[in-house]
Amino acid sequence: MRELTPRQKIERSIVTDFRRNIWNKFVMGIDRYDMIKDGDKIAVCISGGKDSMLLAKCMQHLQKYQGMDIGLEFIVMNPGYNDENKQRIIDNAALMGIPIKMFETKVFNIVYNQKRNPCYLCARMRRGWLYSYAQELGCNKIALGHHFDDVIETILMGMVYGGQIQTMMPKLYSKNYRGMELIRPLYMVKEADIIDWVNYNDLHFIRCACRFTEEYEKHENKDGISKRQEMKELIAKFRATNPNIENNIFKSVYNVNLRTVIQYEYKGKKYNFMDRYDDFDWDNERGGDDEDGFEM
Fold first, then answer.
1. 136 shares a domain with 196
2. pLDDT confidence of residue 296
3. Closest to 10 (Cα-Cα) out of 145, 191, 189, 199
4. What number of CA atoms fall less than 13 Å from residue 65's CA on the CB side?
5. In whole angstroms, what is the distance from residue 53 CA to residue 145 CA?
6. Residues 187-202: what's their mean pLDDT?
7. Strand 269-272 relative to strand 71-78: parallel, antiparallel, unpaired?
8. Is the alpha carbon torsion for 207, 127, 125, 97 positive or negative?
9. Model-level pTM greater than 0.85?
10. In this structure, what CATH number is given to the domain that contains residue 103?
11. Of all residues in the chain, what percent carry a pLDDT higher than 90?
12. Residue 143: helix, strand or coil by DSSP?
């Protein structure tokens, strides 16, 4: 029997050992939210971390074995990685058989001295560069490596720190780059399963690798430095008493009952329950203080 190369082992593990928790959920997310169509040319955006590298391999497999007529470009924006991290991305891409195209920017240097929301600014700038480069390559979509846990953490952060109910969408059109669409094919894949896949294949990827992350790793008391890390720890505490906590949080943005929402916004217009409160139809409407569905 022919021995598999490291690349072949990595590729095969996705559809064999991790078929249920990674590949099937990857395909489920694409199908459920109609992310990819024949004729698409997709820029798979690689940061060098575990999520985007797994995404690249899944997209490669989708193109090669699922009969979809799609084009793929694997793009890496270097926002200012140190030489070690940059080389690790190049080496991992070679190991995994991912033909990357890397381009240079100075995003890290620009945002480092920003006192307010540097991570938000960094994400916006990086997104813009990715859209722009993808368009130059003739792509109509960019694919990012956000996973299920990112979605849950975003919902909680919006409530706790943003005072709003929102989520990370599985796909959306770009406001600033006409004809471009963002998709998140790993939307249904859980981070724990990605970590298991990484460990199974003994892979070593970079993390965010910006100066903020480096400082976070050195900091003995990490409280207050990373809000997303704070959400991870909060969810872990919830999970200790309710193992279904992530699924329940996710379902909460599916099961929104506008009758029980004080105010919501749609297409720039705000709607408040008080606007039509006195129009209640006593004969035909359901609702009232006996149908709140929970107790305070």
1. yes
2. 38
3. 199
4. 12
5. 8
6. 97
7. unpaired
8. positive
9. yes
10. 3.40.50.620
11. 65
12. strand
What proportion of the chain, given as a percentage, has pLDDT over 70? 89
* Same domain, yes or no: 243 and 192: no
The C-alpha atoms of residue 158 and residue 120 are separated, in whole angstroms, by 13
Residue 142 has pLDDT above 50, yes or no: yes
As to burial, measured by CB atoms within 10 angstroms (0-12 exposed, 13-18 middle, 19+ buried), residue 47 is: buried
Q: Are 75 and 153 within one domain?
A: yes
Which among 95, 123, 115 is positioned nearest to 6, based on CA atoms? 95
Residue (of 52, 100, 57, 65) closest to 206 by Cα position: 52
Tokens of 29: 């997310």
What does the alpha-carbon distance between residue 116 and residue 100 come to, in Å, rounded to a whole number? 33
User: For residue 80, which of 217, 214, 210, 208 has the smallest C-alpha distance?
Assistant: 210
Tokens of 238: 């919830």
Tens of pLDDT along 153-169?
A: 999 999 998 899 889 99
Residue 158's domain comprises: 6-207
CA angle 247, 248, 254 (to 5 degrees): 95
Residue pair 7/96 in contact by the 8 Å Cβ criterion:
yes
Q: What angle do CA 223, 247, 48 make, to 5 degrees?
A: 55
Q: Copy the structure tokens of residue 59.
A: 């997209």
68 plus 202 within the same structural domain? yes
Element (H, E) at 89: helix 83-96
3-state class (DSSP) for residue 119? helix
pLDDT for the residue 144? 97
Number of helical (H) and strand (E) elements in the chain, helices listed first: 11, 8
Q: How long is the chain?
A: 296
pLDDT of 117? 73
Q: Give the orientation angle of helix 148-160 with respect to helix 191-200, to 10 degrees.
A: 140
Whether residue 54 is contained in a domain is answered as yes
Q: Measure the CA–CA gap between 134 and 128, rounded to whole angstroms.
A: 10
Residue 59's H or E segment, with its range, is helix 50-65
